[in-house]
Fold:
Amino acid sequence: MKKTLTLLSFALLLFACGSKKTETDSSDAPAVAGESAPANQLTEQQKADGWKLLFDGQTMTGWRNYKNKENDSWEVVDGMLHCKKVNDSTENKRADLMTTDPYENYEFAFDWKIAPQGNSGVIYRVTEEFDVPYASGPEYQLIDDIGYPGELKAPNKTGSNYDVHEAKNKTLNPPGEWNSSKIVVNVNHVEHWLNGVKVLEYELGSPDWKKRVAGSKWKDFPGYGLAKTGYIDLQDHGSEAWFRNLYIKVL
Structure:
């Protein structure tokens, strides 16, 4: 009897483990490039599948500063969009960098890395109605989850929809190493992916979304998450961040 119960317990354990599924990316999204792989390029198949480059690796073509603010924090270096660290000894002119074209429904894939203690993000469906881009668009958070010198709630960590939805089941490479992310925005449906795994999804305007927003720092931002189309915005949060392989596929 004891032996039978042991075998039964083992079988139940195997079943429980097998029932936990993590959704992984089987799409045609460009994969994260290794350090020696060609960056900022699409294969012929990716082009045929509808992917387009948003960054050519050499110029800022296709990008401009939020509200055309004067800016000295962004540069193109070694095939990357680089956000410089705040220099306390000089007056800094900081601004987010955003696409010149607005987008409605799309998949946006990008590689990124941050410096230790760094903080950045990608904000989507951004409008220029307000003084800051995060007043209108939700944010895919990019941050040093372990070393950031401040308190971080679960919805404020990497991959999360900042302060609203927590990213789960994620595998995150540490600061200084590349990560690959993807944002899917299709009508009201939004997905966040990190290193090939879907870490959250939500529906804009749903009762759950409204409840979460009402309990977040966005409760006093009347335009938050309401735009049906908008720009893709790379956040300048005062710390170093790097981006490359920025691709979009319009849905």
About this structure: The chain has a mean pLDDT of 88. The chain has one domain: 43-250. Residues 43-250 form a domain with the Jelly Rolls fold (CATH 2.60.120.560). The longest strand covers residues 241-250.
